[in-house]
Structures are given as C-alpha cells and as structure tokens.
Amino acid sequence: MAIVGAGALGRVLARRLTQQGYPVTAVLSRNRTSARALAREVGAAVGSDDWNDLPFDVSVVMVCVPDDAIPAVAASLADLPRDWASTVVGHTSGARTAEALAPLARAGAATFSFHPMQTFTSESDPSAFDGIYVGVEGDPDAVPFGAQLASDLGAQAVRVPTEAKTRYHLAAAVASNGLVALMGMVNEIIASAGLDADDGLALMRPLIERTQANVAAHAPEGALTGPAARGDLGTVNAHLEALATHLPHLLPAYAALTNEMVRLAVRSGRLDAGQAEPVLDALHDALPESDSPSAG
Ligand SMILES: NC(=O)c1ccc[n+]([C@@H]2O[C@H](COP(=O)([O-])OP(=O)(O)OC[C@H]3O[C@@H](n4cnc5c(N)ncnc54)[C@H](OP(=O)(O)O)[C@@H]3O)[C@@H](O)[C@H]2O)c1
What we know:
This protein is an alpha/beta fold.
C-alpha cells in the first residue's frame, strides 16, 4: 500500500494500517521531510516527494491530501508510466466523491472515497479508528475493498450513494462544527449575563451530558424538553426580548433553532398545529423579513 499525503489523517491511517497488518511500503508527500519521517515510523521502504518513486508493486494507494489538492494529485499520479488497471485508489475526503480521482479512473484504476467519521490530529492514537464509521463511495469494483478495509481498521463501513455524498458531509458538518458553534453561542450568552462562572460551559456540562444521553436513548423526538416543546409562548417571547436587548446578532440563530424545536415537537406529537403556530409567528415577527425561518 502507499499513502499520499503525510498530514494528520495520512499519519494516523499509516500507523493503523501497519498495526492491523497492511504493509505500507511507500509514503509520498509534497514535502520530502514529512514523507520520510512517516515512512521511517511505519517501516515503509520509500519516503519521497517524487511521484515517480511510487513502487510498481503497490496495489492500493490512499490519497490523504487536502480536498482541493486531490484532483491535481490524481492527475499527476495518472501521468506516471505504469499500468493502473490492477490498482485501487481511494481518497479520504468527506466532501468529495470518487470523481475527484477521475484521471486515475480513466487510466484504469478502481477509485473510491473512504471518509472516516472522526476528527484526527497528527498525534491521534491509531485506536481512534476503533468503533467509528467510515463513509465508502465510488466505483463498484472498489467499494467492497473499502468496506473490508474499514472493518480491518476496527471501524464500520457505511455505503454512501454518490449523489448523497454532499448531504452525508453536510450532516457531519452540522453534527461536529455546528455543535461547536452552538457551544460558542452558549458561552457568549453566559458571558453577557455576567454569571460568576470561570468556564461558562462548565456550568452547562451536566445538562449537556444528560441531553446527549437522552438523545442516544430516545432519539431527538423523544429527548426534546423546554419551552418550545411545551408551546410556552411567554418564555419564548422573553428569550427573544433578552436577545433583542443584549445580543441581537444571535436572534437569527435562536429563531432557526427554536423553529427546528417546534418542528420536532410537532413531529413527535407533543404540539399540535394550533399550539405551534403562535410560537412560529413570534419567531417570525422577531426577525427582519430576510432572516425569517420558514416552518417547513
Ligand atoms: N484530519 C481529520 O480529522 C480528517 C478526518 C476525515 C477526513 N479527512 C480528510 O483527509 C484529507 C487530509 O486531511 P488532513 O487533515 O490530514 O490534512 P493535513 O493535515 O493538512 O495533511 C494533508 C497533507 O497533504 C500534503 N499535501 C498538501 N498538498 C499537497 C499536494 N498538492 N500534493 C501532495 N501532498 C500534499 C501535505 O503534506 P506535506 O506535509 O508533505 O506538505 C499535508 O501534510 C482531507 O481530504 C480531509 O478532508 C481529515
């Protein structure tokens, strides 16, 4: 196997592959020093910044470069004087499909995308693959290999239809980056209230942890509590007023989130349309016309 891109994921993947008995024989990267350092660490014979050093007997190439660099790397690899027909090539982007490797597919390689649903740094322990999911998509000749690879790394494959890859990545972005933005919003509200807490989020931690456990046990529909789920218009109006006075820039985010809470509450039968409507109207009225969420 060869790893292309000795960055955060390339390093952890190379370590995990070696640990699980997949021999990594070459590491190629933009920077020769980082390629050689990783090659040394995993016992690969080749560590280079020259694509021509890709050994002829490599049958699997995992491209772990930034998303925008994948097409150019694929084009450079496809130009190599070698027969790609017996090679499987994957990339690890969550946002791109196997189409990003099109030059290699045209040269005869079976291409796939292999996206571990986890966040890694170059220091992450290889066990970070344990129990996670890996989104696998691409050429039907390569996808079964990707699924097997995920399983051999200690993860579980999820087959992602090519046309759904962007929505798959959107869900990941909302789950991870959206959650971080939400925690930033919580911190800002606590700071604005002048509460005596060194770490604003520490105040909320038990609540956050219990909520996460409730979502895992009862699904979002069964876990929702609070004023929106009760159709408690007076409290929602008080929140909107506090935001308008102290943190008006957070009004659109609050309105969008509360809108989703009402939709969840209606879906789960907690609220009927008659109870939901006044809350949705209050959210709509609190925003300038262009920021209003729709009930959907
Ligand atoms: N990190 C994560 O948590 C994570 C999780 C899931 C998926 N992914 C995906 O994995 C891929 C890599 O992400 P990453 O976080 O590992 O990025 P990263 O830490 O920036 O590493 C990418 C490496 O690719 C090399 N590189 C950059 N441009 C290149 C080029 N034009 N040609 C050859 N090598 C090049 C660089 O190597 P040099 O050091 O040699 O310059 C860099 O170290 C991305 O598609 C990302 O979406 C990442």
